[in-house]
Structures are given as C-alpha cells and as structure tokens.
Amino acid sequence: MSRLAVGLVGWGAIGRTVGTALAAGRVPGAELVRVVDNRPLGDAVAAPQTSVEEALAHCDVLVEAAGAGFVREWGERVLCAGTDLLVASTGALTDDELAKRLLATTPGRVHFTGGAVGGLDLLQAARSMGPLTEVSLTTTKLPGTLEQPWMDEGLLARLRTATAPVEVMAGTARDVPAHFPRSTNVAASVALAVGDLDAVRVRVVADPDATRTRHVIEAHGPFGSYRFEVNHLPDPGNPATSQVVPHAVLRGLAALAHSPGRIL
Which residues form the Aspartate dehydrogenase domain (predicted)? Predict the structure, then answer.
C-alpha cells in the first residue's frame, strides 16, 4: 500500500508537534512531504517548505494547523485539486455557507478532527436515532487566554482582576466561536456532531485558578442522556490550545493512512 503523502499548513504549537511526529515515523503509513507557512522556517522543518499550490501537487492530504482563515481562503481550492483537507480549526464551520460548500466540493474530501474533546462519535450515533433535545457546552480557561480585541475596558478589567470564575460570554455554537476564534473550536466540533449550530448552548468561563482547560458537554434526547468532561493541560507555547490537540490530528491522519487498531 502506498504511503499517505501529508502536507502541513502552519508551523505553530499544533504544526510543530504534528510535523515532528510524522518526520519521526510515528504514524505508520503516513509521511510528511511538504510544509506551508508564511514565515521562512529554514532548517526548522523536516520537509521542504513550499507554497500551497506546490504542496497540492505533491500531497494526498493537507493538514490545516494555521487557523480558520486558511479554511475560508483555500478550503475549496484544496478539494477541487483532488487533495483531501484535514481541518483542525473547526470554528470556520460556523459559516453555514462555507461548511456546505466544503462538504459538497469534490474530488477531494474534507475531514475534521475532534481536537480537545471526546464523545463526538457517540453524539453522532445518538443523533442518527433522532434529534437531541438539549445540548450544552461549558468551556473554562485562564482569563488571559480569553482576552479579545472586541472586549471593552470593563470586561477586560473583570478578567484581569478576577478572583473567582467569571462568565465571559453565553450564546450558541453559531456566534460564540466567532468571538473567540482561537479558543472555542470545541463548540463548532460539538455542533458538527449534533448537526445544528443553533442547538448547542455555549458558555465561556474565565477562571483565575484554572490549571487545566475544562470542557463539559451535556446532551439529552429521546434515547438517552450523555455527559462528557475533559480537563487538559494547555500547550506551554500557546495556552489557548490544549496539548492534546496535535495528537488528535495525528490520530486522524492514522485513520486516513489505514493504520490498524483505530476506533472509528
């Protein structure tokens, strides 16, 4: 069987871990062959650094580890070129029209990683039996990782002086990720599993004592009730990202490379 030729877009907290693992042969059947980044990386990467266009000519799949902007700008072009796209920044899918176009575009296929949260496969299975009547996600992070340019001085002061948990925002999976583009991809992932952005109620909480990033998902439907809680150590280089995220990407690549023993 031929090896899966992987191109990696983005050499940040996620990309470095994914690229290093691929170069070390930690994903049987997959090989890092190209890296795309808007900064000159020199010898820091274990594969040639090229443009997106050149990567498309050499790769079976591109891994997006560069942010939702890449998905919006390049997603359809990647798929039209016949290259698969593995999306880490699922927050891009809060754009309904973009999501529909990506799912409909061929011959390449779009794939999504669950990132920092589990249980999405079970939610998809439950949804296939009938709509879930209530779905909620509460994400808790350190205040500093949640500061955004749109926040007014009052909210920033609350975050910076908090001595107890502070609710920063509440809404649906349609509107919350747009306000926290680097911190709430989980909300979009849950909505993808449920099949409805507006059905997922999201709370974002800042906790000055949070040593780990916490995501709590609760869902109820006619056939059962579900609750998942995960607590992750943040990435030391990018505290807005959990350390587990690049390993979720690697798991996805292993599945695409048909590595045995994977839970599908």
Answer: 163-249
Sheet holding 4-9, edge to edge: 30-36, 4-9, 61-64, 84-87, 110-112
- Which one-letter amino acid corresponds to residue 221? G
Numbered residues of the known binding site for NAD(+): 116, 185
Token pair, residue 235, equals: 């990435």
Q: Judge contact between 143 and 169, C-beta under 8 A.
A: no
Find out whether 179 and 168 touch, Cβ atoms under 8 Å.
Answer: no
Task: Judge contact between 250 and 26, C-beta under 8 A.
Answer: yes
| pTM, entire model | 0.89
| pLDDT tens digits, one per residue of 58-112 | 999 999 999 889 999 999 999 999 999 999 988 888 888 998 999 999 999 999 9
Q: Pairing state of beta strands 61-64 and 30-36? A: unpaired
- DSSP letters for the chain: -PPEEEEEE--SHHHHHHHHHHHTT-STTEEEEEEE-SS--GGGSSS-B--HHHHHHH-SEEEE-S-HHHHHHHHHHHHHTT-EEEES-GGGGGSHHHHHHHHH--SS-EEE--TT---HHHHHHHHTTS--SEEEEEEEE-GGGT--TT--HHHHHHHHH-SS-EEEEEEETTTHHHHSTTT-HHHHHHHHHHT-GGGEEEEEEE-TT-SSEEEEEEEEETTEEEEEEEEEPBPSS-TTSBTTHHHHHHHHHHHHTT-TT---
